[in-house]
């Protein structure tokens, strides 16, 4: 197992956070008192900007399928029709969902950021935080001039820190691609069962990928990475993935770029789960042997989301009956005939079920307990991930060629505490 102390993890994060050519980033903060809940007292909000040195025609986005989207999502969908864009403005603390005048506020912030930056193209605007509160637009407008004039960071790290809410640490991943790089950051720790992305994720590259290819490739990559994670089975109103290219480096071809983009997205989406609210274990469920990948993913997701599976893993209790009942429920609910004589189930390297029967004994029970304990994460979390291990559950249901993996987390007391006290 690979373990990190804070220094080793930070060195890795800083090396991955170097911005691709043609990008700048900056962050600022301010205080406000929410009009809807003044007794909550003074709140701190961060604003962060990513700007391209020149407008780009190569950009793409994927947004939540939640039927009650945040106003920045509504504005962002419209902005996809723009001929070119210049960057992105993000705020945390207030999600701007359902608030009166929220669409106008989002568009005003986008327009003002472009004006203050002297930009030729418009800016996307994203918000995350409490649903129902109105953006403190006056306080935000007061901070924007300094933010837009601030010297650029060479690193994405200050931006990644600024967009955090209940995240315990910033999340950044990168990959080399031809002669260029892809660098991405995400925030998200709760209300995460995407139907497109995580809560917020932003991909930057200096590789000159054609716009039409980026818009075809991004949803495909999202479907197999961010759409295959779940922390709590809750789909956010603000889920957004945005992609920008500064077009500085030659395009190496679809296969090379897809590999790099998928590698970056897969690592980043797993980081989101590892940093999930109250996460004590990352659980990776792989279901194979079916003829339908979508059905395999649905079954894996049902097991990953099953409360009794999650709590058993939280307690380092290899109660395999929890997994079997969740599997049986998922198969029954989807109309899939479960053949017990073909079914194979393992946790890590230990075979748990096969040839029509459980394969359990005292020695295996002790081995599984130790396996779970070694993959436990501290709750509450440290300011960095001490390791990148996960609990691997592998299920084979037949001889079909399709398989799917869903990454989830356990369910701890800390998750309940965070969400019970989220606004107070």
- How would you describe the shape? globular
Helix and strand succession? Answer: HEEEHEHEHHEEEHEEHEHHHEEEHEEH
Give the strand order of the largest sheet, numbering strands 1, 2, ... along the chain: 9-16-11-15-12-13-14
The CATH H-level superfamily of the largest domain is L-amino peptidase D-ALA esterase/amidase
Q: Which architecture of the largest domain does the CATH hierarchy give at level 2? A: 4-Layer Sandwich
The tally of structural domains comes to 2
Largest sheet: 7 strands, mixed
Provide structural commentary.
The protein is an alpha+beta fold and 424 residues long. The chain folds into 2 domains: 13-274, L-amino peptidase D-ALA esterase/amidase, CATH 3.60.70.12; 282-420, ArgJ beta chain, C-terminal domain (Ubiquitin-like (UB roll), Roll). It has 12 helices and 16 strands. It has helices spanning 6-16, 71-79, 102-117, 137-149, 157-162, 211-224, 254-274, 293-305, 307-314, 320-334, 362-374, 413-420, and strands at 23-32, 43-56, 59-63, 85-91, 123-127, 171-177, 180-187, 200-207, 229-230, 240-249, 282-290, 344-347, 350-354, 357-358, 391-396, 402-409. It is globular and about 70 Å long. The mean pLDDT is 92.
């Amino acid at each position: 197992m690979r373990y990190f102390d804070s220094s080793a993890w930070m060195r890795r994060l800083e090396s991955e956070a170097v911005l691709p050519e043609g990008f700048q980033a900056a962050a600022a903060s301010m205080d406000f008192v929410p009009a809807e809940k003044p007794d909550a007292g003074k709140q701190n909000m961060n604003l962060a900007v990513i700007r391209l040195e020149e407008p780009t025609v190569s950009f793409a986005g994927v947004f939540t399928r939640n039927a009650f989207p945040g106003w920045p999502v509504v504005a962002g969908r419209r902005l996809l029709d723009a001929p070119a864009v210049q960057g992105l403005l993000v705020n945390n603390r207030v999600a701007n969902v359902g608030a009166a005048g929220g669409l106008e506020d989002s568009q005003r912030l986008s327009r003002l950021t472009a004006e203050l930056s002297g930009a030729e193209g418009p800016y996307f605007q994203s918000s995350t935080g409490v649903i129902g509160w109105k953006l403190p637009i006056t306080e935000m407008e007061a901070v924007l001039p300094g933010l837009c004039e601030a010297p650029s960071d060479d690193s994405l790290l200050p931006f990644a820190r600024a967009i955090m809410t209940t995240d315990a640490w910033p999340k950044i991943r990168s990959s080399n691609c031809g002669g260029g790089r892809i660098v991405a950051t995400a925030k998200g720790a709760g209300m995460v069962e995407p139907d497109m992305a995580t809560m917020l994720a932003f991909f930057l590259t200096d590789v000159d990928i054609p716009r039409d290819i980026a818009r075809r490739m991004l949803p495909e990559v999202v479907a197999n990475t961010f759409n295959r994670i779940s922390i709590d089975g809750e789909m956010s109103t603000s889920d957004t993935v945005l992609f920008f290219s500064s077009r500085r480096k030659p395009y190496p071809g679809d296969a090379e770029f897809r590999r790099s983009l998928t590698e970056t997205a897969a690592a980043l989406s797993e980081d989101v789960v590892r940093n999930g609210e109250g996460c004590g274990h990352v659980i990776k469920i792989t279901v194979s042997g079916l003829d339908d990948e979508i059905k395999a993913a649905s079954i894996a997701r049902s097991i990953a989301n099953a409360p009794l599976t999650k709590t058993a893993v939280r307690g380092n209790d290899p109660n395999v009956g929890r997994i079997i009942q969740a599997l049986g429920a998922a198969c029954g609910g989807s109309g899939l005939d479960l053949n017990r004589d073909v079914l194979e189930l393992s946790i890590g390297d230990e075979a748990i079920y096969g040839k029509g029967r459980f394969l359990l004994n005292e020695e295996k029970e002790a081995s599984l307990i130790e396996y779970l304990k070694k993959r436990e994460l501290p709750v509450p979390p440290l300011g960095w991930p001490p390791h990148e291990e996960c609990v691997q559950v592998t299920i084979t249901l037949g001889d079909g060629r399709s398989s799917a993996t869903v990454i989830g987390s356990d369910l701890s007391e800390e998750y309940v505490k965070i969400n019970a006290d989220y606004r107070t």
